[in-house]
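In the previous chapter we treated chains in isolation. Here, by contrast, the input contains two separate entities that must be folded as one system, with a combined length of 515 residues.
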Amino acid sequence: MIEIEGLSKLYGRDVFALEDFSMHVGKGEFVFLTGPSGAGKSTLLRILLCQEAPTTGRVIVGGRDITRLKPREVQTYRRTVGFVFQDFKLIPGKTVFENVMFALRILGVPDVQQRRRTFQVLKWVGLQHRANAYPLELSGGEQQRVAIARALVNEPALVLADEPTGNLDPDLALEIMNLFREINSTGTTVLVATHDRELIRHVGHRAVTLDHGRLAIG
Amino acid sequence: MLFAGLRYFVGEAVTGLWRGRRSTVLSVVTIAAALFVLGIFLTVTANLDALVARWSEAAELSVYLRDDVSLAERAEVQRALRGDPLVREVQLVTRDEALARFRRDFPDLAPAVSNPQAHPFPASFEARLVSQASEGDALESLAARLRGMRGVSDVRYDRLWLQRLQSIAALVGWGGAVVGAVLALAAALTVTNVVRLALFSRRDEIQIMELVGAPLSFIKGPFVMEGILQGALGATLALGALALAISLARGRLAAAAAGLIDASSIVGLPAATHVLVVVGGMAVGCLGALLAARRLG
């Protein structure tokens, strides 16, 4: 699903966020990306979301080199990727239902289908009863579940998460991780960046460790 | 899809305008002020044009005949007048009729003309002209032709002052267009800043839209629609203010210049111009919003 080869990202003249980094994530795999703060996890995810261009290297996702996409192709690519961030990134002026439905609306899905799928996915994350609430009326765990619902509503082949449990207490973090496990069990590839080694140990999947922008051995 | 897209743009734009209602009011009032000034100029120009047209219609060409004119010569002059496309109507005023008119118009001076046979008033043809007669050189050449005819002593017409009035009307029109254009530009820049503020306050939302792969048109659309709606609101406000100003002007004029100027003759802008003003306002808003949103994506 993801092939990364010789990836480097240089900020300024000599600050390497990533340096000659390579990794492979198979289709339907669940992989943790870990390492201390500043190791380059977020940079890698930003590159995978085409928010940043690498300095050198290739990033192949689903068979396409995403570092060479034109702006219009970036839009199409992003519609196939679900993303979840530590700060949830929900639109405060829209209700939970609207926040989730929004991702379908831009695809031109008919209204009735938009509503049906939004309701289904909200039910799946256990928030159908909060559909009309606004994000700020929800707890952190609930907000993250809304963000997960939005990431899933398009049925993406790949879900990227950047410290999705960073703002949550350990019980809630585990709950969110269980959701990711369920997503993965349907065949969706999941890549989760986290510095929480305890959580990784608990969930128990392959972990790729970054250190100062390089793949850490051992 | 198109309808759904438009509905989405309008819905989001209305929400956005309400959310930033203070700056919305600012740009709507700026657009309204610009279009109001433009509207005033347009109204003044339209009324001056109407006045010129009315006066042109009343404009007369007088062809004075020599006292010794023969019937054949008089008939020739009459034919020349009737056959000219600038002439709408021809009336013969005989010497006796000219005298009678003098006595009627100036009764105090009437006794000065004691001998009805030896008065100085010549016979003449009075020609009413079509309203476009004061434009171009056709009238000049008709007058020259008539002057050269046998039996004609003089040809008089009031053209210069009509031309001057027309020049003034054109000048007011141009002045209005220039002032209006400058104000419209200022209004567009105000919209640009208001939309830029909206873009800034909703930058997170825009980032989320970009991340879920929203097309650029989908992201820009609501902001451009906000500009268009601000323009439409501003134009409507301007037209309302203009209607009020015209009705106030009529009232003032009726009171101050009763008998001199017919206040009811002041006309507002035609319906087509109203539509143009609204479309113009929307265009100004759209331009401002597009300027603000050009860096998106």
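Chain A has a mean pLDDT of 87. Chain A has one domain: 2-215. Compare these points with the single-chain example from earlier in the chapter.
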